[in-house]
Amino acid sequence: MTVPFRFIHAADLHLDSPFRGLSKVPETLKEKLQASTFSALRRLTDAAIREQVDFIVVSGDLYDEADRSLKAQLLLLKEWERLQQYGISVFVIHGNHDPLNGARAELKLPSNVTQFGASGVEYRPAYCRNGELAAFVYGMSYGKRHVTENLAARYTPVEGAPFHIALLHGNVNGDSSHDPYAPCSLEELTGKGFDYWALGHIHSRKILHEYPHVVYAGNIQGRNPRETGPKGCYLAEVSASRAIQLTFLPLDDVRWLDAGLSINGLHTEQELLQRLEEQADRLAAEGEDRPVMIRLTLEGQGPLHLKLTEMLTVRTLLEQLQQGSPHAWVYGLEVNTRAELRLSELEDEESFAGELFRLTRRLGQDTEAWREEAAAAVAPLSGHAKLGRLLRKQWDELPEHWLEQAREHVLGLLAPEGRKDE
Q1: Which distant-in-sequence residues (6+ apart) come within 8 Å of 292 by Cβ?
Q2: Comparing 28-32, 48-52, 87-91, 174-178, which segment has the lowest mean pLDDT?
Q3: Quick one: which of 82, 218, 276, 290 could link to 205 by a disulfide (CB 3.0–4.6 Å)?
Q4: Phi and psi dihedrals of 56, rounded to 5?
Q5: Is 10 in contact with 56 (CB distance < 8 Å)?
């Protein structure tokens, strides 16, 4: 049995993270983006006060850079002092973006803040507001940016507390979308004897396991087009019987969203623009009164496909979409449409299009042959400084990605009207 208590699990604040490539964004939205990590931080404090939590744990990457900005340090200190006024303790570790060997100002932390060091795993008691012991909190910060050893192996719960919370900034089960820092396995974590693993480093919130809980809170503010959807923290409520209830609390001040739109059944650019505007309006509503950054992808098959292969058409549509509300900014319009083709008819057709179709079928079944064909096709570009690097970086995607696109594009141009679907 334990005393009931409540805590917030947050991670990856990335304070003062830069937002690049936003030259066309309206100035008011650009300013909001630049300040969004700080706004999300203030919302974190507000949530802790509103929910009357006993303490907060933050699992690394408080700052975006090892040499953290003075502005970020001072604003974080101010929020911690706000929490101190309400008797809310804070336990933090540092990760690969803000290791302890980075440059920082000489600031005195308020007494409610525990910052774990990098020399080894430490633990500290966490108390309820009434003074009763709620849990032991364990943590270890990164002393340098690149930590490739298994830090989880060092964690061991200590007797004397009714509940045990471990803070870890690392990559569980080798998530390929993030660097392999402090790698470990889920099986290893669940067998350690802790009640709750408060994880950081992966920016998507995930509950990997329950009882014991192994949880990624994700970051508190999306910082680029890859970090879509609501961002925030978890409120964890622990009952006297040690049952855990998790509630996601959104904190983001600007939200990045992706959505697709099919061109099936659309015949004119006017129809398409109307559908795109309707989609943008629906996504704006998902922002829940916060600005949204929207990327739309056109999909499906239809008579508009050929027109959408023209960059001028796509650019004009995007410009029209950007005439709407600056709080629902469509920053990207991508095309992944296909021509209306009856490919089965090309299998036996004695024509250039038929021969081309059969060639692409053979290349699709022979990876090595396709690589040779593709290498010969792009050879003139390999010496270009930027294009050459791009080709080498994306070479593994060539067999499926480029061949399919090339076939759809060329056959769409060659197909007579009679072969297209009605």
Answers
A1: 254, 255, 256, 257, 283, 284, 286, 327, 328, 329
A2: 174-178
A3: 218
A4: -125, 140
A5: yes
